[in-house]
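Why predict the complex rather than its parts? Because the way molecules touch one another can change local conformation, and only a joint prediction can capture that. The input here totals 535 residues.
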Amino acid sequence: MIDITNEAVEIVNPVINESLRTGDFYDDDEDVCVDVRNVSVMFNLSKNREEGLKEYFINMVKGKVGYKEFWALRNVSLKVHRGDAVALIGRNGSGKSTLLKTIAGIIKPTRGSVEVKGTIAPLIEMSGGFDRALSARENIFLAGAMHGHTRKYMKKRFDEIIEFAELEKFVDVPIKNYSSGMVSRLGFAVATCVNADIIIADEVLSVGDAKFRMKCEERIQQMLKGGTTILYVSHSTAQVKKICRTAVWLDKGMIVDMGNASDISDKYMQSIRQEP
Amino acid sequence: MFRKNIDEFMYYVPFLKEVIRKDFKKKYHKSVLGVAWSMLSPLLMMVVITVIFSTIFKRSIPHYPSYWLGGNLIFAFVMDGATGAMNSVTNNASLIKKMKIPNYFFCISSVTQHFITMLLSLIPYFAVSFIIGVPPSPCMFLIFFPIALAYIFTLGLGLFLCAYGTFLRDLSYLFNIVRRVWMYITPIFYPIDIIPENYRFLFELNPLYVYITIFRDFALNNTMPSERLLIVATFYSILTLILGLTTFKEKEDRFFLYI
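Output of the joint prediction:
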């Protein structure tokens, strides 16, 4: 096992002070609902697809030659407070989605720990685990059940969800026939209706039309007031500034900087412009 | 720790119901007869098997159709359930990658789905038994015991297979061959009497033989199986479940790398 690169953090971020790296960005007495501590996630690029006996024996004979480690996250520490809206920004492949999946409990960190207080509604890759062969109606019950809600409870919220997603005409159409905008609308509507304490939104708002985006932003503001926490990934700096108070800038699996949303997004944009 | 697991289980019970409902719907999607196939296919197979074998085993097995149907009922459930559980994590990869759901729920849902199919095929089983004149007895109600044990065994076996099958896809091909061999070493279409007495203890090493024998004793022979057999059967079920659960828990953290 290669020890993960503590020194790399220092090389890339000489400016970050100690408190930022250890995650003590806020005062500790505040209400922390997501606590990510020194999390590193490793993917095994070549072993990843070792799905057959042949490959298995080849690798065994070779003694794991061609074994390639890829650290999607390195020593990431982060604390999120109840009712906060945190944006994750960074380029493609910087580890944003991996961090969200780690927080959501889908990926177990290779090193470090994640502590979450409350329930999470993950909206990853637009849909929170919809079955594409099923209709919106069935998917709503299925998604609700994933959050521990009975059919009876979801029936009560059903009309509200459909109305918000504007899918009245397509309730019984299998969602494989939906456009990506329709799926993301449904996903957003369901995730915001299951009463989760933390909502993870991975580029959900990027496909909806302007009208729906406005509606979503309104809903998000409303939920923030109600004490819901939102973790948000977006490539739109304008949206980040509008919705989030805090931003975390990731690059190559490490936190470059975090703090006030508009400051950080400006810094991020600036760094992109400067890149060759 | 134990308490936490129970709470987690209870939290996802609605999910289990929905997934089973969903899989059932998808299984018979667009077929005209739908669920009726769960009852029809063993009946059709029974006719074929009876025509072929009943002349050979006429003397030693009374009520041959019920004999075969009962044995096959349990055998098919265990094998289908275990195979389904083995592939359940891979088949639900898109969901597992997006939602945090304990992986073993997919095994439970797969086994339970096959279990329901098996319960449905009990209807034609008793219909056939009634028609061919198997005397009804209160003993028949005791079949829930071997059936429940078979469920626990299947779940354990399925979890075990899933723990390895998720990493090594070849396992499902391998298990297909095992299944075929297993069918021949289990007295489903032949009577145990054709095996010499001094080799019969070997059959008791086969959990499926034990469950099927208990089932037949209750449903067909109207007798109590020996206590020894009942204890052995319970032992197999619990042992397999513990083995399956521990193996699964140990491996599941690395599943996401392979799906």
